[in-house]
């Protein structure tokens, strides 16, 4: 127990630097240097977002999971695909800005295709309307992926397909979350998609900031792209 606490303490400064609003290049450098220890560190933090998002998609998806093609945006080392695979999904395409995170995802053997792509810097290099499910977990937050990218995610999704997104509920992410929810609702008003589920979860991940105790809360959003 003492060892776990010490390790968590050692990790805090590192993790907190990921939440800062830095340039995209600095963000990618940060993830390049974290890639090797990412899975073990987030396990220690009891990071539940990948399994919560996978379960949310699974509880609404009624198509053929084996045939469905999933776009895992900001895929990192592949934790979301790992959870979705357990639930029967079989085809994954991953995109991320960090080459080192992509290398780990490649090693997982879960993805048919992996591409390096900076989100928020132009179009996504994937085909419009071609994915049954698009997921973005742990990346829609302050200093990571700009809110405007959610329109691109919707465009990548097949009519009738699902877009699953997550964000953190804590002080430093409050403004971002508000802007995100404004955009999600505006897109619904624009007739692009319909909201299927919004679930707030209390024990999302262990808090690392000195202003927070226990667990940070988080939220999973699931939207269904409307027929054109
Ligand atoms: C917290 S990790 C989440 C990874 C994975 N989805 C998970 O839940 O374990 C955030 C990922 O987003 C990527 N990322 C952050 N901002 C990005 C951006 N603007 N463009 C591309 N990738 C970005 C990072 O490289 C990193 O792999």
Helix content bin: 40-55%
Q: Main sheet: which strands, in order across?
A: 3-2-1-4-5-7-6
The count of strands amounts to 7
The averaged pLDDT comes out at: 92
Shape: globular
Structural class: alpha/beta
Question: Count of DSSP helices?
Answer: 7
Distance between the termini: 55 Å
Describe the model.
With 228 residues, the chain is α/β, with parallel strands linked by helices. It has a single domain (2-225), classed as 3-Layer(aba) Sandwich (Rossmann fold), CATH 3.40.50.150. The chain has helices at 2-19, 24-44, 49-60, 79-86, 99-108, 149-156, 174-189; strands at residues 69-73, 91-96, 113-116, 131-136, 157-169, 193-206, 215-225. It has a seven-stranded mixed beta sheet, sandwiched between helices. The longest helix is centred in the first third of the chain and has 21 residues, at 24-44. The chain is globular, with a radius of gyration of 17 Å. It starts with a helix and ends with a strand. The relative contact order is 0.16. The structure holds S-adenosylmethionine (SAM). S-adenosylmethionine is lined by residues 24, 27-28, 31, 49-50, 74-76, 79-80, 96-98, 101, 118-120, 137-139, 144-145. One of its GO terms (molecular function) is S-adenosylmethionine-dependent methyltransferase activity.
């Amino acid at each position: 127990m003492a060892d776990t606490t010490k390790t968590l303490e050692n990790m805090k400064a590192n993790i907190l630097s990921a939440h800062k609003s830095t340039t995209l290049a600095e963000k990618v450098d940060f993830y390049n240097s974290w890639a090797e220890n990412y899975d073990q560190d987030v396990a220690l933090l009891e990071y539940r977002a990948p399994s919560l998002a996978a379960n949310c998609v699974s509880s609404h998806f009624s198509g053929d999971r084996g045939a469905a093609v999933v776009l895992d945006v900001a895929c990192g080392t592949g934790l979301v695909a790992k959870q979705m695979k357990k639930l029967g999904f079989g085809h994954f395409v991953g995109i991320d800005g960090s080459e080192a995170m992509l290398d780990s995802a490649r090693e997982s053997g879960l993805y048919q295709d992996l591409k390096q792509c900076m989100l928020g810097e132009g179009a996504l290099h994937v085909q419009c309307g071609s994915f049954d499910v698009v997921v973005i977990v742990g990346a829609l937050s302050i200093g990571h992926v700009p809110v405007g990218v959610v329109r691109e995610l919707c465009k990548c999704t097949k009519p009738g397909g699902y877009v699953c997104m997550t964000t953190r509920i804590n002080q430093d992410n409050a403004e971002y979350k508000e802007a995100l929810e404004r955009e999600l609702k505006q897109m619904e008003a624009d007739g692009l998609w319909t909201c299927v589920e919004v679930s707030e979860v209390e024990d999302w991940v262990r808090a690392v900031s000195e202003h927070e105790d226990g667990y940070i809360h988080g939220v999973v959003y699931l939207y269904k792209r409307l027929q054109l």
